[in-house]
Amino acid sequence: MSIVDQSVAGLRRLLVSREISPGEVVRELAAEVRSRGEEVGAYLAFDEEAAVKLAEKADLSLPLGGVPVAVKDNINVKGDPCSCGSKMLAGGYVAPYDAGCMEQLRAAGVIPLGRTNMDEFAMGSSTENSALGVTRNPWDLSRVPGGSSGGSAAAVGAHLAIAALGSDTGGSIRQPAAFCGCVGLKPTYGRVSRYGLVAFASSLDQIGPMTKTVEDSALLLNHLCGKDGRDSTSLDEPVPDFTAVLGKSLKGLRAGLPKEYFIDGIDPAVRASVDAAVKVLEELGVEIEEISLPHTELAIATYYIVAPAEASTNLSRFDGVRYGYRAEGSGDLLEHYMASRAEGFGPEVKRRILLGTYVLSSGYYDAYYVKAQRARALIREDFTQAFKKVDFIVSPTTPELPFKLGALKDDPLSMYLADLFTIPPNLAGLPALSLPCGLVEEGGARLSVGLQLIGRALDESTLIQVAHAYEQSTPWHLEKPTR
Amino acid sequence: MAQQSIDIQHAAKLARLQLSSSEVAEYQGQLGKVIDYMATLEAYDLGEVEPMAHAMPVFDVWREDVARSGFTAEEALLNAPRKAAGQFLVNRSVEDA
Predict the structure, then answer these.
(1) Per the structure, how many domains does chain A have?
(2) Would you say residue A170 lies in a domain?
(3) Which domain, by its residues, includes A247?
(4) Is A218:A471 a contact under the CB 8 Å cutoff?
(5) Is residue A297, in this structure, part of any structural domain at all?
(6) How many CB pairs under 8 A join A and B?
(7) pLDDT tier at B43 (50, 70, 90 boundaries)?
(8) A248 part of the active site
(9) Is there a catalytic annotation at residue A312?
(10) Which residues catalyse the reaction (chain A) (predicted)?
């Protein structure tokens, strides 16, 4: 097996036994990105020499010593560019500090390697909203990789990264993981510090790992979680060893199938893959029960009020004064703000800023924003009631297969509706994981299908236990796109 | 929540966004559909439900009122589009006396 095909766990074994060096790993990945990277377009920046310097000093006694991890371009890595896929920051913005999660990963020995493409400011479900280039699905280059962490998912799915970090506001780790055939984990809100993550919607955003295997997800999560005093929403909760549950039996665990998530309109191939996955879980000893999450129908409307409202305030800091794009020309300060923001932001960001400003504006605040907050409470209560009966919830990650590039670009509402299954856990702050559960032949290509597992708050361990047992019983994690 | 026609020009002004006439027309149609979709919330009686801004409890964060290190002036100005004499430069907004 070549170096680029290794998992984090496999790579660590090779590094610790001195069969390879961290410098070799970086150079091998860089060569692969040079030869195959352009067709996928997963990376916005890739500084091989800087990574080699770090690799030469890597401490292999650390738990993740010498492991390179690609980083979504909205997470600050000191000294690296951080563009958020936007013209607003693409003119040379350099991160002056490390995000909290990067400090922790560096302390564990990780080498940051490459900045991955994304929907501008993490807004989108296809990575087509990046102002800086197209990312393609490694399984079928005519299709989208999903979004907004499409670059990270495509890098891992194409074996152009050993592992990557993404961020998830309404499914932005899980949906691209499903489309690109990798494992994506959105931790409980507050588990991972958001310090240094460029904020989109502060009450929903979470950083999480995107990996080839469930074991790798656990290995990275061990070094991502923890209290950070610089993030007022960071939880002061014990962090378990997430690898401790790998290999544990699933006997006695109860899974809920929400009837609102198994509806007409799901692609039949997606439905068939998920039904087969549920059978595998049953064979592994899981008790399956139908449940109801009755307010699921409210999730999209709630999300597309709350998230743009928060985004419109968070993005007000981009005014062309302290950092970011500045429009040329004269005019007073207000004209300067308006021109800089008009030229610096792309269409989807403008759409959401306008929507967010509208729902927060005088006369509409109660009608939209407060109403959405009430609906959010009902959605969380649905999960509270469900978790009295079951230990975790199973659903498709997405209702459809990866779509063609450009297919939904001018129809934002249709694009938004595709996030129905991933949004509710963000609104409720719950952990959720997507892992591959099938490959579907369509138009001469094999397309990946994702299985979503949703857990109780702070119970990532059960998701990892179940996902690992399922993964070890099925072949999907062994498949990779044809080169 | 009555069906509303979103006033894009007004929202753009509040959001400090300059829009072309073609953008106004495009967003008017697209966001109009999104706003119409928000009527989904009308089907439920939400009046008695306590609004929830955050999924987890959020508390103010306090620290000791002691000096600590932060960015230097040079670091703070590192990404400034225009700067001079250790300060951010912006367009003139006050007329000469």
Answers:
(1) 1
(2) yes
(3) 3-255+387-478
(4) no
(5) no
(6) 172
(7) confident
(8) no
(9) no
(10) 72 (charge relay system), 148 (charge relay system), 172 (acyl-ester intermediate)
- CA pair distance A394, A258, nearest whole angstrom: 8
3-class DSSP state for residue A332? Answer: coil
Q: Which residue of A has its CA nearest to B20?
A: A342
Closest to A126 (Cα-Cα) out of A141, A136, A116: A136
A324 to B40: CB separation less than 8 angstroms, yes or no: no
Per DSSP, the three-state class of A435 is: strand
**Could you tell me if residue A55 is inside a domain?**
yes
Q: What pLDDT, in 10s, does the model give residues A402-426?
A: 999 999 877 888 888 889 999 999 9
Among B8, B82, B28, B6, smallest CA distance to A319 is for B82
Is A167 marked active-site? no
**Strands (DSSP E) along A93-203, which ranges?**
111-116, 163-168, 183-186
* Chain-centre distance for alpha carbon A364: 32
Q: What are phi and psi of A246, to 5 degrees?
A: -65, 130
Instruction: For residue A370, give the chain B residue with the closest CA.
Output: B51
Which is higher by pLDDT, A338 or A409?
A338
CATH, residue A209: 3.90.1300.10
For residue A371, give the nearest of B14, B32, B52 by alpha carbon. Answer: B52
Please give the single-letter amino acid code of residue B92.
R
Give the integer Cα–Cα distance in Å for A132 and A142: 18
What angle (nearest 5°) sits at the alpha carbon of residue A90, between those of residues A157 and A228? 70
Cis peptide bond upstream of A148, omega within 30: yes
Catalytic-labelled residue, pool A149, A152, A172, A273 = A172
Nearest to B90 among A316, A333, A372 (CB): A333
Domain-embedded: residue A192: yes
* A118-145: average pLDDT: 97
* Averaged pLDDT score across all residues of chain A: 96
